[in-house]
Specification:
305 residues; alpha/beta; Rossmann fold; eight-stranded mixed β-sheet; two-stranded antiparallel ribbon; 10 strands; binds NADP nicotinamide-adenine-dinucleotide phosphate
Length: 305
C-alpha cells in the first residue's frame, strides 16, 4: 500500500512537537519550521537549531509536562493546534532508572508523558488536525523476538526492584513495550468519539532502524559497536538514513502524506513507506482500553475519557 500526497499549498498552521532537537526529529523540525505558513512550537529540554519556538519540557517530570501544556494553551489563545507530533524517545540498557514521579523512565518518557500531553492538548486540536506518534517495529514479535507478548501497564510503570542491576535485554524489552504503548495510544485516540467527530488524522509512525541518531547513546559498548557495523553495511540493507526518516515524519506531520482509508500504522521499510497491520496485541481493544484507563490514573487525570 502506498501513501497519497496532499496538495502542497494546503499548509497546516500550528504544529506542536516533542523530540525535535536531535536525530530524525531534528530533521523533521527543520523541514516543518521552514514550511511557509507553519508555526512550530517545540517542547524540549534544550534549545534547537531549527527556526522553531522552543518551550521548556522535560518528559521525565509530569509537572513539567503540565507546565508545558498550560503554557502552550495560554500562548495560543484562540488559535487551535493543527498538528501534534509526539516523537521524543529514550532507551536505556536496563530498567533501573526511575523518574521523580517514581515511574520506570523508558515507560514514563516514551509513553506516559506523551499520553498526558495528548490528553491536555486534545481540547485545543483543530477540526481535521493531524496527530503523529512515533512508535517502532520493535513492538512487534514478527520483527523483534523480544517484543512483548502481553501488556501489564502497572508492571511496566513499576517493575519490581531487583537485587542486582537489570541487563540490556530488560532495557530493550522495556523500550519495545513502551513503543507498543505508543501504538495503542494512537489507536485509542483514533477510535475515540472526539477523533471521529473532529475528523482527526492519526498516525503511528515507525521510522525503522535508523542508525546515526542519539537513541543508542546509553547502550553498552558492544551493542554500539554492533550498531556501527550495521551502519557500515546500511547501503546493502537499505535501511533509511536519518534524513529520510526525518523527512517522512515531516511529510506525515504536514499532511503531505495521509493514511489510506482505515490505516494508521505507517512503517518505513527499505526506504518505502508502507501501511501494514501492527502487531496482533496492539490490535486488541481490551488491551488498548486498559492502557488508556491505567495511563489516565497514573498521569493523575480524574477521568479516563
Ligand atoms: N533510531 C531508530 O532506530 C528508531 C527506530 C524506531 C523508532 N525510533 C523512535 O524515533 C523517535 C526519535 O528517536 P531518534 O532515533 O531520533 O533518537 P534521538 O536522536 O535520541 O532523539 C530523541 C529526541 O527525544 C528527546 N528527548 C528524550 N528524552 C527527553 C526528555 N526527558 N525530555 C524531553 N525530550 C526528550 C531528545 O532530546 P535531547 O536532544 O535533549 O536529547 C531528542 O530530541 C523516538 O521516539 C524513537 O523511539 C527510532
Amino acid at each position: 500500500m502506498h501513501a497519497s500526497y496532499r496538495d502542497e499549498d494546503d499548509p497546516l498552521k500550528t504544529i506542536v512537537m516533542t523530540g525535535g532537537t536531535s536525530g530524525l526529529g531534528e530533521v523533521a523540525a527543520r523541514q516543518i519550521a521552514r514550511t511557509p505558513g507553519v508555526r512550530l512550537v517545540l517542547g524540549a529540554r534544550r534549545g534547537s537549531q531549527s527556526a522553531a519556538e522552543t518551550r521548556p519540557l522535560d518528559l521525565t517530570r509530569l509537572a513539567s509536562v503540565r507546565e508545558f501544556a498550560q503554557g502552550v494553551i495560554h500562548e495560543l489563545g484562540d488559535t487551535s493546534i493543527d498538528g501534534l507530533v509526539l516523537n521524543a524517545g529514550t532507551q536505556f540498557p536496563n530498567i533501573d532508572q526511575r523518574t521523580e514521579d517514581g515511574f520506570e523512565t523508558t515507560f514514563a518518557v516514551n509513553h506516559l508523558a506523551h499520553y498526558l500531553i495528548l490528553r491536555l492538548l486534545l481540547p485545543k486540536l483543530a477540526r481535521g488536525a493531524t496527530v503523529v506518534i512515533t512508535t517502532s517495529d520493535t513492538h512487534d514479535p514478527k520483527t523483534n523476538p523480544m517484543a512483548p507478548k502481553e501488556l501489564d501497564p502497572e508492571l511496566l510503570a513499576h517493575p519490581p526492584v531487583q537485587r542486582r542491576p537489570t541487563g540490556f535485554s530488560a532495557g530493550f524489552r522495556a523500550y519495545a513495550s513502551s513503543k507498543l504503548c505508543d501504538l495503542l495510544m494512537a489507536r485509542g485516540l483514533a477510535t475515540s468519539e472526539e477523533a471521529k467527530a473532529k475528523r482527526f488524522t492519526v498516525v503511528a509512525y515507525n521510522p525503522g532502524l535508523t542508525i546515526g541518531t542519539s537513541l543508542f547513546r546509553a547502550w553498552p559498548l558492544w551493542a554500539r559497536l554492533a550498531m556501527g557495523t550495521a551502519g557500515l553495511i546500511r547501503p546493502m540493507t537499505r535501511l533509511a538514513t536519518v534524513d529520510q526518516a526525518g523527512q517522512t515524519l515531516a511529510d506525515l506531520a504536514l499532511g503531505r502524506i495521509t493514511p489510506p482509508a482505515g490505516r494508521l500504522y505507517a512503517s518505513l521499510v527499505k526506504r518505502q513507506l508502507t501501511w501494514p497491520d501492527p502487531s496482533a496485541l496492539s490490535r486488541e481493544d481490551e488491551v488498548m482500553n486498559g492502557l488508556w484507563h491505567d495511563s489516565a490514573r497514573m498521569a493523575g487525570l480524574s477521568s479516563p475519557a
